[in-house]
Write a structure and sequence with these properties.
151 residues, mainly alpha, 6 helices, 55% helix
């Protein structure tokens, strides 16, 4: 006859106090970076219902200078970004302190471009963007960085 063996595990000991989740990524950004993030978020809200744009065609059409350049580059990037990373991209509403992984990635790319850290920028692109789209996403991020630095 088979015997049934029962193991009794000890009850987990409660900690002295619960540890609240901490996402202080948003607190680490200065006001200029916050402004950039809110510009990207606002554009993402507006583009949420817009049709997606083919990345190659969008970059081929971008020959813009002047006041509308920043808006156009940001809009094109937002519309094409999810295609380039082959998945949904999460953007919070403007003014939210927390930062999504996608937002932090974009901000890190912009910071790498501004610092002239091409190795880090290439690493970031290779870590998320499909090989066929890296050139175009790199171009758009470069133009966005240029436009923000002109303000």
């Amino acid at each position: 006859m088979d015997k049934l063996l029962v193991l009794r595990l000890p009850n987990p000991q409660p900690t002295s106090k619960p540890i609240p989740p901490q996402n202080d990524l948003g607190a680490a950004y200065d006001s200029g970076t916050r402004e950039r993030l809110n510009t990207l978020r606002l554009c993402a809200m507006e583009c949420r219902v817009a049709a997606r744009t083919d990345l190659f065609e969008a970059c081929a059409l971008l020959r813009i200078d002047g006041e509308d350049a920043k808006r156009t580059f940001v809009t094109t990037f937002i519309k094409c970004f999810s295609e380039a990373v082959h998945g949904p991209v999460k953007w919070y509403r403007p003014g939210v302190i927390d930062v999504t992984f996608d937002e932090a990635w974009v901000l890190r790319c912009l910071a790498s471009i501004e610092a002239g850290d091409h190795s880090s920028f290439e690493f970031l692109l290779r870590s998320r963007v499909a090989k066929s789209d890296r050139r175009y996403i790199g171009f758009l991020l470069g133009r966005i960085s240029d436009q923000f630095s002109q303000v």
